[in-house]
Structure formats: C-alpha cells, structure tokens
Amino acid sequence: MDTLGEELDVLDDPVEFLIGGDDLFQVIEDALQGCSAGSTINLHIEPEQGFGEYNEQLVFLEPRALFPDLLEEGMTFDGTALPAGCNPNTPQDALYTVTDVYPEHVVLDGNHPLAGIALLLTLKVRAVREATQVEIGSGTAGTGFFKVAASHDVAPGSHTLH
To answer: What's 2's DSSP letter?
Structure first.
C-alpha cells in the first residue's frame, strides 16, 4: 500500500527471503531480525529506503519510427536492447517502460514503477528456517521479489520488479 492508501499488491502465498543476502531492502531486513513464526511487522518505507527517488533524467523521448509497429504503453525494453538510433545517453543497466506513444515520439521511463513512492508494508512471518548452502552461496532464496541489486546507482531493485 502506498501512503495515500492505494493498495499496490497483496501476496496470498508466502515468499521466502534470505536474511543477510540480496533479497530484501535493508529496512525490511532490519525489521525482520529476531522475528519468529507468527510475528507481524508494519513498516513505513520512504523512497530512499526502497525503490529510490524519481529521477527525471531517466525519462527519454525517442523517435517513434525506431520502435516496432505494435508498441503499447506499459511495454518494457531492456537498456541493452533499445533500438539502434536511441539516445546514446540512456543508461544500459535500466529497464525502460513505455509510458506514452505519440505519432512522432515515444516516452521511455527508466525509473522503477514505485520510485518516489513511500510504502506501507504489513509482513507476517509464517516460518523461519536455516538457509541452505546454495542460498548462502548465491545470496538469495531465489525469489528476487524485493531484490536490492543496484541499478545505475539510482534505485535499488529497479531492474527486477517491473
């Protein structure tokens, strides 16, 4: 939920996370320390603790003719796979969402969809277990739901939750 009360997502099934790895934002990991099965945590996460502040420098206008005919708002393009002829200053380590399609140009936004939004999370701990050696070695329980690997030094997790 965002701080304006809009419900953004509800997960019905439990999701496993690795504490001490790369799966969680630090604020979530800190709140989960010492919790046991049955614990409930309510968190207020500011943008700088989550998906980062909105960065207007990650919004690009590109010629419509560079893109496929079947282009719609909401489609995404990996920064490494943008059509030839796009602005060479677009960071390649971002995922770009088409936010507007006009006859002459396309608007690409490299911000995470939740960038600039404060979040309210309610987490319920269902179970706690020891991590496997594979999870420890890879730094993840494999979910990547709140993966915090930095992307173009702007918003943690911005390339994984699109």
So the answer is: B
16-71 pLDDT, tens digit per residue, is 888 887 888 899 999 998 889 999 999 999 999 999 999 999 999 999 999 999 99
Kindly state the tokens that stand for 33.
Answer: 């320390």
CATH number for the 56-109 domain, one of 3.90.1750, 2.40.10, 2.30.30, 3.40.50? 2.40.10
Tokens of 104: 């002459």
- 54, 57, 51: which is closest to 90 by C-alpha? 57
Pick one of 2.30.30, 1.10.287, 2.60.120, 3.10.50 as the CATH number of 1-54+114-162: 3.10.50
Q: If DSSP codes are grouped into helix, strand and coil, which group holds residue 144?
A: coil
Q: How far apart are the first and last CA of the chain?
A: 17
Query: Which among 23, 41, 49 is positioned nearest to 146, based on CA atoms?
Result: 23
